[in-house]
Amino acid sequence: MSTSEFAMTPRRPYLVRAFYDWLLDNDLTPHIVVDATLPGTQVPFDYVKDGQIVLNIAPRAVGNLELSNEHVCFNARFGGKPQQVMVPMAAVLALYARENGAGTMFEMEPAYANADDEMFEDETFEPAPTAQCKRARNRAPSH
């Protein structure tokens, strides 16, 4: 059997972790571009423009960062207000360095093809349940 006959896990979580580590190893500031319209995305909507938001995920900018196979979760301050952010992997569109743009854009993968079928009905920010991020972290491989 060829590998195309097997259901494979999405590569995006692995690439996010790899590019994140690579950028930090090169003393760069990693940012993610997020599709804020996808279900399950919890970001401060006051900062969303054209359905997207760019988030600094450098260690000095966020707390409790989790790069699991399902989500990117962290705590950060927006306008001085602490908030928890949860971004499903399907909503991560790109990861790049602020200083020089080094990084990558992510192509659509079959595992995420239906992630944008439903749009948010209520675009108000609700804090992500901490337990949900912890469950996602427990499923992620340790590095």
Give a description of the structure:
- 17% of the residues lie in helices and 29% in strands.
- It has 143 residues and is of the alpha+beta class.
- The chain has a four-stranded antiparallel sheet with strand order 2-1-6-7, covered by helices on one side.
- Strand 4 and strand 5 (81-88) form a beta hairpin.
Beta strand %: 25-35%
Radius of gyration: 15 Å
Low-confidence stretches: 118-129, 135-143
- Give me the side-by-side strand order of the main sheet: 2-1-6-7
Helix and strand content put the structural class at: alpha+beta
Report how far the terminal alpha carbons are from each other: 30 Å
Mean pLDDT score:
84
Oligomeric grouping of the chains: single chain
What is the element string, with H for helices and E for strands?
HEEEEEEEH
Dominant shape:
globular
Task: Kindly state the number of beta strands.
Answer: 7
Report the biggest beta sheet as strand number plus sense, adding barrel if it closes: 4 strands, antiparallel
Helix content: 10-25%
Please give the count of helices.
Answer: 2
